[in-house]
């Protein structure tokens, strides 16, 4: 897990191989929540700030940042297995013209049943449309809660926008709950521990969502496999899968074009059947949109869809295919699919709505004592004014403001600044005007 250097004990799906880490500080400049520090020549992660977006994994040239997920061997732990394939899985295979080939391959691989996350996505879309039409009290614009990295980003950097989050479970969680109901009906003789609900994931953030749920006190997902691990296992099965007597592959798919399209940026928004939305992907673009929303520059919108990964879930770090190639494949695959096959019913209310409130992450809390916190804030400002303002990262923090906070909270020393270190000379060009 991430370095245990905060009071936040939640699970994190990004880890650091300290032997491979060279302390190059590339990661600290790209982390969207300033969660990484380089100390003693090695990177560490501040748990409370980390949102498991995987951006550090993308930019680490030394492959020292690694995702955590479950091994395929965990299938042996359960007597009855249900696969939850993410729609992004469909775009990984070349020349796939029928989703049923892939779904039947999962069953041949060892799963007893398949419940498509795309099916749950269509139910979420239907419920979202109803909420937007019927509940005028919900703040506008609503922000999709489907991307767990974005939801955590809002908790950490934009707590004032929490009220805009769509209060519905992400399709992965809804799929898990509906799949469990179906499994229990099929095998009433089995206990909950005998049933394995396995999500096949495109990204690390969804691993964290399954282990440390937001909007719920727990998740019904038992294990998360990486698409990149499942992909080579399915390829030979898909090529040799047997057809039935009619010469057709058994029809297992239960989702339409709307659900499958969720894997790409704009897919969720287009399922709302409205043009009054905004869709953005890539963590830097997401931050820009949230900043504009915080500054009230995005009035008149009903819905905002944000994906931390470029191109959407197909751009997750656990995939194997170029995300834009995967999107093109999905477009071809969905051409002759029905628009939607699933709708929300009142019986699903308990599974689709959040079961717990989402609260801000108190990453800037300096002290439990108000007077002490004000004193430390004053110290931070004074120290920041004395720093060069270069935000060079040489101190191991992403910027001068971060170093000032680290010093006040005991995570660093003022001498870490190579320009302001005692006995060093800071030439006039590097001094900020007072």
Q: Mean pLDDT, as a whole number?
A: 92
Helix/strand-derived category reads alpha/beta
DSSP helix fraction: 25-40%
Give a count of the beta strands, DSSP E runs of length 2 or more. 11
Domain unit count: 3
Overall form: globular
- CA radius of gyration: 23 Å
Whole-Å distance between the termini?
42 Å
Q: Which strands sit side by side, in order, in the main sheet?
A: 6-5-8-9
**Which H/E pattern describes the elements?**
EHEEHEEHEHEHHEHEHHHEHEHHHH
What portion of residues belong to β-strands?
A: 5-15%
Which labels suit this protein?
434 residues, alpha/beta, Alpha-Beta Plaits, 3-methyladenine DNA Glycosylase II, Chain A, domain 3, 3 domains, 4-stranded parallel beta sheet, 3-stranded parallel beta sheet, 11 strands, 34% helix, disordered N terminus, disordered C terminus
Question: What does it look like?
Answer:
There is one protein chain. The chain is α/β, with parallel strands linked by helices and 434 residues long. The protein folds into three domains: 1-68, Alpha-Beta Plaits (2-Layer Sandwich); 72-345, no CATH class; 370-434, Orthogonal Bundle (3-methyladenine DNA Glycosylase II, Chain A, domain 3), CATH 1.10.15.40. Helix content is 34%, strand content 10%. It is built from 15 helices and eleven strands. It has helices at 26-30, 55-59, 99-109, 117-134, 148-157, 171-186, 205-211, 227-240, 257-260, 267-270, 283-294, 323-333, 349-352, 370-386, 400-408; strands spanning 14-16, 36-39, 42-45, 65-67, 80-85, 113-114, 142-143, 195-201, 223-226, 277-281, 303-307. Strands 6-5-8-9 form a four-stranded parallel beta sheet, with helices on both faces. Strands 7-11-10 form a three-stranded parallel beta sheet. Strands 1-4 form a two-stranded antiparallel ribbon. Helix 3 links the parallel strand 5 (80-85) and strand 6. Helix 3 (99-109) packs across helix 8 (227-240), helix 4 crosses helix 6 (171-186) and helix 14 crosses helix 15. The model is unreliable at 1-8 and 425-434 (pLDDT under 50).
């Amino acid at each position: 897990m991430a370095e245990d250097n905060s009071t936040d004990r939640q699970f994190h799906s990004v880890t650091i191989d300290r032997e491979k880490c060279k302390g190059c500080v590339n990661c600290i400049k790209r982390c969207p929540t300033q969660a990484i520090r380089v100390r003693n020549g090695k990177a560490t992660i501040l748990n409370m700030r980390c949102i498991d977006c995987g951006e550090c994994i993308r930019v680490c040239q030394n492959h020292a940042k690694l995702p955590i997920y479950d091994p395929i061997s965990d299938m042996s732990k359960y007597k009855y297995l249900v696969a939850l394939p993410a729609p992004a899985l469909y775009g990984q295979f070349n020349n796939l013209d029928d989703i049923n080939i892939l779904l039947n391959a999962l069953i041949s691989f060892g799963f007893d049943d398949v419940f498509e996350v795309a099916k749950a996505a269509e139910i979420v879309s239907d419920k979202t449309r109803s909420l937007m039409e019927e509940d005028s009290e919900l703040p506008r614009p609503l922000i999709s809660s489907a991307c767990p990295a974005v939801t955590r980003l809002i908790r950490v950097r934009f707590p004032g926008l929490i009220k805009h989050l769509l209060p519905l479970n992400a399709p992965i969680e809804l799929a898990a709950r509906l799949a469990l109901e179906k499994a229990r009906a099929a095998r009433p003789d089995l206990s909950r521990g005998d049933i394995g609900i396995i999500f096949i994931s495109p990204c690390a953030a969804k691993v964290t969502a399954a282990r440390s749920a937001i909007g719920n006190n727990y998740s019904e997902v038992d294990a998360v496999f990486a698409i990149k691990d499942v992909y080579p296992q399915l390829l030979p099965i898909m090529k040799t899968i047997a057809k039935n007597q009619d010469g057709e592959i058994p029809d297992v798919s239960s989702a339409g074009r709307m659900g499958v399209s969720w894997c790409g940026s704009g897919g969720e928004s287009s399922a709302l059947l409205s043009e009054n939305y905004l869709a953005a992907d890539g963590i830097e673009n997401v931050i820009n949109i949230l900043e504009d929303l915080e500054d009230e520059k995005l009035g008149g919108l009903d819905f905002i869809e944000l994906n931390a990964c470029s191109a959407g879930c197909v751009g997750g770090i656990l995939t194997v295919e170029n995300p834009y190639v995967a999107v093109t494949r999905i477009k071809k695959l969905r051409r002759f699919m029905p628009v939607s096959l699933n709708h929300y019913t009142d019986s699903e209310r308990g599974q689709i709505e959040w079961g717990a409130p989402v609260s801000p992450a108190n990453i800037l809390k300096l002290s439990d004592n108000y007077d002490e916190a004000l004193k430390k804030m004053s110290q931070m400002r004074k120290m920041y004014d004395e720093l060069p303002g270069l935000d060079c990262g040489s101190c191991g923090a992403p910027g001068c403001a971060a170093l000032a906070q680290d010093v006040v909270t005991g995570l660093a020393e003022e001498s870490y600044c190579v320009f302001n270190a005692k006995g060093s000379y800071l030439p006039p060009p590097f001094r900020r005007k007072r």
